[in-house]
Amino acid sequence: MSAVIKNVLIVGGGIGGLTAAVALARRGIRADIVEIKTETSVYGVGIIQPGNALRALDSLGLMQQCLAAGFPIEQYRYFDAQERELATLQLMRVVDADTPATNMIPRPTLHRILMGAAAEAGVTVRFGLTVDTLTTEGDEAAVLFSDGTRGRYDLVIGADGIRSQIRKLLFGEITPKFTGHGVWRFTTARPARLDFQAMYMGVGLKAGLVPLTRDTAYLLLVTNESENRWMPADRLAEMLRDHLTAFGGMVAEAREKLRDPKDVIYVPIEEIELAPPWHKGRAVLIGDAAHASSPHIAQGAAMAVEDAVVLAELAAAGGDIEAVLNAFEARRYPRCKFVQELSRKIGHDGNLSDPELCRARNERIRRDFATPQPRPHELTLSEPI
Ligand SMILES: Cc1cc2nc3c(=O)[nH]c(=O)nc-3n(C[C@H](O)[C@H](O)[C@H](O)COP(=O)(O)OP(=O)(O)OC[C@H]3O[C@@H](n4cnc5c(N)ncnc54)[C@H](O)[C@@H]3O)c2cc1C
C-alpha cells in the first residue's frame, strides 16, 4: 500500500483528536473530525501539563495560550496525611530555562484552546456522529457514518478514548482493565499558599491538591475499590467528606467547603494494555484508545498530544502506509508502556493499606528525596519523542 496522505478522518474530538487535527493541518494534511457528543462539552476539573506535554504543544504553537490560561508549577511536595512534610521535588523545566516546569489548566479551557486552533486550521468537527463500519478498499479507508453517509480517506485515526469504537472495529472487543482504584475530584478555592502540587500519603488513601488558576484549585482523592462501579450521584459529597476525615491541613480546609454532590466527580480507574499493532489497513489508534493509563503520574493527555505530533510528522513524510504506521508504533509504544507501568506502580504504592508498609513508604520518600530534585521519570520523559 502506498504513498501520500492528504485526507484524514479523525474519530473523537478530545485532546488527542483535536491535537492530531491541528498537527496534520500544520503539515498541510486535511483532517476532519467526527465526535459522538452532540455538542462541544467536556466535563470539569483540570489537566496537569508536564514539561513534555508543553514541549509537544509548543511545537504546534499552542503552549503560550495554555500557559496564559493556566497556573505554573515548579514544585511537587509530599506530605503525610496530617500535612507533615516528607519531601519537596523540584520539577524539571523541559522546554527551556524560562518556561515553567509544569502548567495546570482547567479542562474546559484546554478544550477551548484546542477547538479554536482546529477551527483556525480549517478543521471541520461534526458532532453527534460516529463510524459504524470501516473497511480498506484499495488505497483508501472506506467509512460508513452513523447518519448513513459514506466517506473515503487516506487514513482514519481512532482518537475515541478508552472505550474506542474504532478499536472494536479493528481488533474486536477489548475491555478496559479495572485497576482497583477510584479517583474523586472537586474544584475549590485555591489556598493562597498552594503554588505547588501537594500529595498527601495516607493509609489506604492518597489525597492531592492542585492549583488550577489564580483563584481555583482541585482536590483529588484516590481510594481502593473492590468493584468497578460508579458511585450514587446524590451521595458523592457525603462519601468524599467521609474519606477526607483522615486528612489535616489544606485538605481538611477544602473538605469544610464541600457540600454539593454535583461538585464532585468520581471515576473508577481503568487501563488499556494493548501491544502493537495499533493499526490495521489504513486505520490507527492514538491516545487512550491505544494505551489508556492510570492517572498517577498525570501523563495520559501528554501521551495523546505526543502521539498526535509524531503521527503527523510521519504521515507528512509519506511512504508506504504500513511502514508509516509501524514507525509510529515503534516510536510511541515503549514510551507509553513506560508511563503505564510506572503509573501503575505509583498507584499501588500510594494506596497501600497496611499502616506499617505506609510508614516505611513515607520514610523512603523522605530519604530518597532528601535534596530537591526532579521526579525520577521526568528525565526519561524529557528525552526527544
Ligand atoms: C481522574 C483522571 C485524571 C487525569 N488527569 C490527567 C492529567 O492531569 N494530565 C494528563 O496528561 N492526563 C490526565 N488524565 C488522562 C487524560 O484524561 C486522558 O489520557 C486523555 O483525555 C486522553 O485523550 P484522548 O483524546 O485519547 O481521549 P478522550 O479525551 O477520552 O477523548 C475521546 C473523545 O472521543 C469521543 N468519542 C468517544 N467515542 C466515540 C465514537 N464512537 N465516535 C466518535 N467520537 C467518540 C469522546 O466523546 C471524546 O470527545 C487523567 C485521567 C483521569 C481518569
Keywords:
globular, 19 strands, 385 residues, D-Amino Acid Oxidase, Chain A, domain 2, single chain, alpha/beta, seven-stranded mixed beta sheet
CATH class of the largest domain: Alpha Beta
- Regions with little confidence, pLDDT below 50 for 5+ residues: none
Strand order within the widest sheet?
A: 6-5-14-15-16-13-17
Characterize the overall form. Answer: globular
Relevant CATH superfamily of the largest domain: FAD/NAD(P)-binding domain
Report the end-to-end length measured between terminal Cα atoms: 26 Å
The overall pLDDT, averaged over residues, is 96
Q: How is the main sheet built?
A: 7 strands, mixed
Structural class: alpha/beta
Ligand roster: flavin-adenine dinucleotide
* Distinct helical segment count: 12
Number of domains: 2
What portion of the residues fall into strands of 2 or more residues?
25-35%
| CATH topology group of the largest domain | FAD/NAD(P)-binding domain
Rg for CA atoms: 21 Å
Known CATH architecture of the largest domain: 3-Layer(bba) Sandwich
Number of strands: 19
Report on the structure:
By secondary structure, this protein is an alpha/beta fold. The protein has two domains: 7-74 and 103-176 and 271-346, FAD/NAD(P)-binding domain (3-Layer(bba) Sandwich), CATH 3.50.50; 179-270 and 351-376, D-Amino Acid Oxidase, Chain A, domain 2, CATH 3.30.9.30. Helix content is 36%, strand content 28%. The chain has helices spanning 15-26, 51-58, 63-69, 107-120, 165-171, 236-244, 249-256, 288-291, 300-317, 321-350, 355-368, 376-381, and strands at 7-11, 30-35, 46-49, 71-73, 75-80, 85-90, 102-106, 124-127, 131-137, 140-145, 150-153, 155-158, 177-189, 197-201, 205-211, 216-224, 264-271, 279-280, 283-285. Strand 5 (75-80) and strand 6 (85-90) form a beta hairpin. Helix 2 runs parallel beside helix 9 (300-317). The model has no long low-confidence stretch (mean pLDDT 96). The structure holds flavin-adenine dinucleotide (FAD). Residues 11-17, 34-37, 47-48, 53, 130, 159-161, 165, 183, 267, 287-289, 295, 298-302, 304 line the site of flavin-adenine dinucleotide.
